[in-house]
Design brief:
This protein has helices at residues 2-13, 16-33, 35-38, 76-112, 114-128, 132-143, 147-173, 177-184, 189-225, 236-243, 251-279, 281-284. By secondary structure, the chain is mainly alpha-helical.
Amino acid sequence: MSELRTSLWHSIRINPQLWIGGAAFAAIVAIAALAPWLAGHDPMEQDLLSQHLPPFWLPENNPSFPLGTDSLGRDILSRLIWGTRPVLLVMVLGATLSGMLGVVVGLLSGHFGGWLDDAIGRLIEVFMSFPPMLLAIVLVAVTGPGLDAVVMAIVLIGWTRFARVIRGEVLVLREQDFITAARVLGYGHRRILFRELMPNIAPIALALFALEMGRAIVVEAVLAFIGFSASDVPTWGGIIADGRSYVYQAWWVMTLPVICIMISVLALSMFADGLRKAIDPMMQR
């Protein structure tokens, strides 16, 4: 056990992707938690006399608005800071629910096989036959806009990825000698699922979870861009939608949230890859 812990710590310590991605995720959490103190202005406060003020590196900027203002005179920096809250809620909750549903379905499908595997396989194919974003838009259009509808949409389009990958891993693992030995010893399905299979699929499930958080950010941004996310709180996609009509007069309104989304998704992808390299014995070898 001591050697295993030493090896795990060594893998984490020398893994720059894990550190960079983890630091970015921690920064999102910290910014969301400290938003009332970090934001210099009310994100919803309008000042029509301060429309389209440029950011600090451009001429005619206002030091009170370091990243400029939008068409209603709202502070872009404050709106980006407060926008991390719906992003954090959606990506963590959506990825968690997607992962829980997909892992359970994949475990059951791969372990039991037979008619259950066939039925789950057909169900996954039906869900994956629809374009994911179209499916999310239809769901949100039916249930109404809001963060809860966005989370439901993420779960609806995300669980299939978990289920397919986990099912494939379980199909390989169930042919291994340690699973055969567990059956010979008379272990029940519950013990085989949660004591034998679950620890072996945990690394890839965690990596998928981190990747799904990045996808959730994109889904929320797209739904907010077309007006299907929450309207009473600033969101990155909503800021992009506000700035698209003035992209030639105030390009920063649209560009800055796009940069935030790109950095967040890239960092979470690095975190997912680094996490799997750190905790998956096969990747270490």
